């Protein structure tokens, strides 16, 4: 009977893992089901481009996984029962509930935006953590006339990329960026200087060391005063999907699934977590940051571990590390900040148009890793041991 592998989430981590597992195991031995809420693969690292009016190439999951043996199911995950080893979903466009049984679960539901408990954010701010959010912001921006004030809250990677992209594409708007710390505070001196120069050249007003206390329909309140805002965009932090915390999985206080060095849950050996949903340690036992740069290598590793354990071969040992942080600052400027394997910033940084082109290659490569999760011929190995067959059925009648 086939071993049932269910992968939740088709972002960079989930989609990569599903495809890589499929290329390592014989189709007659496994049934791989990939569950995702949207029918397309979303290039999340490009949401700032989508929000500012650029067109992105459609990436239908049906095309991505055609011929791989991965069964794509467009549905929203509503619950996970790690004791019964089942996942309940609601099929897209319907109220029909389906339940999938699994032998191995790969949890990759990722993260979304969080209001950090600040009053008014949910009601009045836009976000680009999802494609629907980016599209809503895009529509709102087209309604703005020259001189309209736009406030981007959050001085991290997402805030920097969005503010610079917006200022470049809409120089007629009055763009402000609010950062709790100094602008690019975590970067090297060269990196900070370049970010500051690009912001000045693009006419972005930066409010450093400023904390937002509330968001209103036409203003952002801070500890330093009020800022007018025809549009407020919130990029100040992300939170993981709450489903994991509702299970018996061992999670952190923020709901991330705690995994071992093989990306397997420390409490449930039949569950693997990758991407933003996982709390994993890298070099020097430092937690991996929530990013595409962590999610894709974690997906490769988890897929190889799962295949090895199912086929009785040697389990690979990998420590995920980093080489750089890539930041786009509009279409014409970029910053490649070099880091150590444990993500500690080095003094070296690459800036300018060349850095922007390199960042674009990184974005293309991220999708390439989804479409080509194994870049060389691989032998599909036989699953050892007997597995239980599975099916999807109406949960209301079960």
Automatic annotation (TrEMBL):
InterPro entries associated with the record: FAD/NAD-bd_sf, FAD/NAD-binding_dom, NDH-2
Signal peptide annotation: none
Keyword Transferase: no
One MF term in the entry's GO annotations: NADH dehydrogenase activity
Keywords assigned: FAD, Flavoprotein, NAD, Oxidoreductase
All copies of domain FAD/NAD(P)-binding, residue ranges: 4-303
Classification via Pfam families: Pyr_redox_2
Gene3D superfamilies linked to this entry: 3.50.50.100
Domain of life, per lineage: Bacteria
Keyword Coiled coil: no
UniProt record similarity statement: Belongs to the NADH dehydrogenase family.
The protein's name in its UniProt record: Oxidoreductase
Organism field: Streptomyces aquilus
Organism ancestry: Bacteria, Bacillati, Actinomycetota, Actinomycetes, Kitasatosporales
């Amino acid at each position: 009977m086939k071993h049932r592998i269910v992968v939740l989430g088709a972002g960079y981590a989930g989609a990569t893992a599903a495809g890589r597992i499929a290329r390592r195991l014989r189709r007659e031995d496994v049934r791989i089901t990939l569950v995702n809420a949207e029918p397309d693969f979303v290039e999340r690292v490009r949401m700032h481009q989508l929000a500012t009016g650029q067109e992105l190439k459609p990436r239908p999951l049906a095309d991505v996984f055609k011929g791989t043996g991965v069964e794509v199911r467009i549905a929203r995950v509503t619950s996970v029962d790690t004791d019964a080893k089942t996942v309940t979903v609601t099929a897209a466009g319907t109220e029909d509930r389906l339940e999938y049984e699994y032998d191995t679960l790969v949890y990759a539901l990722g993260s979304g935006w969080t209001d950090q408990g600040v009053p008014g954010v949910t009601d009045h701010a836009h976000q680009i953590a999802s494609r629907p959010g980016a599209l809503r912001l895009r529509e709102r921006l087209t309604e703005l006339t020259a001189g309209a004030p736009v406030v981007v809250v959050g001085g991290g990677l997402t805030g920097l990329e969005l503010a610079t992209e917006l200022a470049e594409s809409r120089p007629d708007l009055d763009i402000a960026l609010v950062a709790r710390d100094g602008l690019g505070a975590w970067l090297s001196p060269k990196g900070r200087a370049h970010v500051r120069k690009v912001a000045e050249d693009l006419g972005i007003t930066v409010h450093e060391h400023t904390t937002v206390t509330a968001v209103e329909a036409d203003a952002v309140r801070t500890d330093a005063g009020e800022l007018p805002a025809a549009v407020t965009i919130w990029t100040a932090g992300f939170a993981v999907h709450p489903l994991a915390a509702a299970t018996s999985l061992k999670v952190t206080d923020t709901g991330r699934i705690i995994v071992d060095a093989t990306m397997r849950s420390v409490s449930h050996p039949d569950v693997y977590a990758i991407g933003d949903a996982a709390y994993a340690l890298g070099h020097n036992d430092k937690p991996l940051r929530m990013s595409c740069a962590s999610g894709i290598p974690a997906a490769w590793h988890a897929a190889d571990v799962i295949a090895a354990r199912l086929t009785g071969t040697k389990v690979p040992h990998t420590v995920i590390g980093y080489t750089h942080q890539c930041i786009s600052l509009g279409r014409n400027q970029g910053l490649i900040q070099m880091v150590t394997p444990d993500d500690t910033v080095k003094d070296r940084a690459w800036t300018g148009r060349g850095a922007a082109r390199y960042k674009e290659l990184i974005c293309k490569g991220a999708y390439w890793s989804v479409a080509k999760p194994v870049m060389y011929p691989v032998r599909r190995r036989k699953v050892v041991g007997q597995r239980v067959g599975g099916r999807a059925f109406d949960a209301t009648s079960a």
